[in-house]
Amino acid sequence: MRADHPLRDPLGFGRGGEGAITGTVVCAAAIAGAAGHLESTAQLSLLIAGTVIIYWIAHLHAITIGSALNRHHHPLAAVRHAFWEALPILGASLVPLGVLLVMRLLGASLMTGAWTALYASIVLLATYSYQAGARGGLGVSGRLASATVGALVGVLVVILKALLH
């Protein structure tokens, strides 16, 4: 298996990490927008899954079209390329969704689970950004600055949640 094969890098960091970041933010935004308007963790989980899948399909379609137009790939080759390129969107969303479900299994309320999943998303975004800084050759202070910027993206989602509820 090649070093850059998607199965060796399921979140796509070797390809840029955009899908992991996008999946995390889309999942967090779905939680932020809907948590106070739904009655159960199951409803919120279905909404998150549906939102992320629709976003993944849109991203899959955009990459497929771009691959066919810009790289002159056959449509089937373009879909295959797009599938692996967009897959991290789905994979990254599993972490906040998993946190939400584990919190429910532990007896937490829907809102406690939602807030915990949002905080987990912030940690993920900070971690992705720290890792990007490290791979980009930044020193510790640069990595921490990068992590702070990533965390601030998550904080924007938390602000959205606070404003909506």
Please characterize this protein's 3D structure.
- By secondary structure, this protein is mainly α.
- The chain has one domain (13-164).
- 78% of the residues lie in helices and 0% in strands.
- It has helices spanning 18-34, 41-70, 75-105, 110-135, 140-164.
- Helix 1 (18-34) runs antiparallel to helix 4 and helix 2 (41-70) runs antiparallel to helix 3.
- The termini are far apart.
- The mean pLDDT is 87.
Summarize the structure in short.
The chain is mainly alpha-helical.
Rg, rounded, reads: 17 Å
How far the N terminus sits from the C terminus, by CA atoms, comes to 48 Å
- The portion of residues forming beta strands comes to under 5%
Number of distinct beta strands: 0
Mean pLDDT over all positions: 87
In one word, what is the shape?
globular
User: Based on the structure, what is the oligomeric state of the protein chains?
Assistant: single chain
Count up the helices: 5
Low-confidence spans: none
* Largest sheet entry: none
Class computed from helices, strands and strand pairing: mainly alpha
Please write the string of helix (H) and strand (E) elements: HHHHH
Helical residues, percent: over 70%
- Tell me the domain tally: 1
